[in-house]
Design a protein that fits this description.
Blueprint lengths: L1 H6 L7 H27 L3 H19 L9 H28 L2 H7 L3 H13 L5 H19 L9 H25 L4 H22 L12 H29 L1 H5 L4 H14 L5 H18 L1
Helix pairs in contact: 2-10, 2-12, 3-4, 3-9, 3-10, 4-8, 4-9, 5-7, 6-8, 7-13, 8-10, 9-10
Length: 298
């Protein structure tokens, strides 16, 4: 019903899409832990992406398989661009960053994506900048810094890893902008399937060009198998579909502000699962993150 309302030009209730963005960022926050676990188990960044997206693509094809090509070659090119910026290149860069540097650095720097989204929208489409959104984004980013650094000031321990994370943030900003262009013309599941397809094909080409080794024997390990399934089915297929729907309704800049919650969830999970202490930096960061997201959404 809400999709029909969107196509007819009326404004759907946005609460559902805010909840989708929130749930997606919660799951994606846990992928930092999951990916780090797989890297520690012996998998490399490229094969982690390929394994998770093989599962995700197989699952979504079983649900959405009635259309092959887009309505035009231009749209097909945009689908391919989305597959690169939100799929293969994005994840290979981010996974490599996780291999090189602290997860806290990656968690922090990836949160610059909303800022890059607003800047790119301004540069590309001349979109006016909302003062509250900018202020909220900066406040939220400050809170992210407090949470993930936790008073240790370790940012920049590995410049290459930090640079790759910033590249990932820019790629994600481009991906969200592309989604806004094509999301209103095609069903969410179809767009997600195309993103998975082009992301998977381009990753296989990258792996072949770089002679990347694969370790399928590691899938016999339960911790590896379960983490790959989590990344493929929940973090990829389900969450990409929800994120695409949220971007279509809320817009890329507003949806991207939820990325600020990812480090917060990671820290809370660390406290609950790893018995890490809660400090004043974490509490202060939580206040700034929630306040920044609230201000940006006003």
């Amino acid at each position: 019903m809400q999709l029909d309302a969107l196509r007819s030009g009326t404004r759907p209730t946005t609460l559902l899409y805010h909840l989708m963005a929130l749930a997606t960022c919660f799951v994606w926050a846990m992928t930092f832990i999951s990916t780090k676990t797989l890297i520690n188990a012996g998998l490399n960044p490229t094969e982690i992406f390929i394994m998770r997206f093989v599962i995700a693509y197989a699952a979504i094809v079983a649900i959405c398989h009635d259309r092959l090509l887009s309505g035009s070659w231009k749209d097909e090119g945009l689908m391919a661009l989305a597959g690169l910026t939100g799929g293969s290149v994005f994840f290979i860069a981010q996974n490599t960053a996780l291999e090189l540097t602290y997860a806290s650095d990656v968690s922090l720097l990836i949160c610059t994506a909303p800022l890059f989204t607003m800047i790119l929208q301004r540069m590309t489409f001349g979109t006016p900048l909302n003062r509250k959104m900018i202020t909220g984004a900066l406040i939220g980013l400050g809170g992210v810094g407090l949470v993930v650094m936790n008073g240790t000031m370790t940012l920049g321990a590995n410049p290459l890893g930090d640079l790759l994370t910033l590249v990932s943030a820019i790629l994600w900003a481009v991906y969200c902008m592309v989604l806004e262009r094509i999301g209103s013309r095609y069903p969410t599941m179809y767009v997600t399937r195309k993103v998975f397809f082009y992301g998977l094909v381009s990753a296989i080409i990258i792996a072949a060009a770089m002679n990347t080794p694969f370790h399928p024997e590691l899938l016999k390990e339960p911790v590896v198998a379960w983490n790959i399934l989590f990344l493929g089915l929940l973090a990829s297929m389900a969450c990409y579909s929800m994120w695409s729907a949220a971007v279509r309704v809320l817009g890329p800049a507003k949806t991207s502000t939820y990325i600020y919650l990812q480090p917060l969830v990671t820290v809370v999970a660390s406290v609950l699962l790893l018995d890490e202490p809660v400090t004043v930096y974490v509490v202060s960061g939580c206040v700034l993150i929630l306040g920044g997201v609230y201000l940006a959404e006003r």
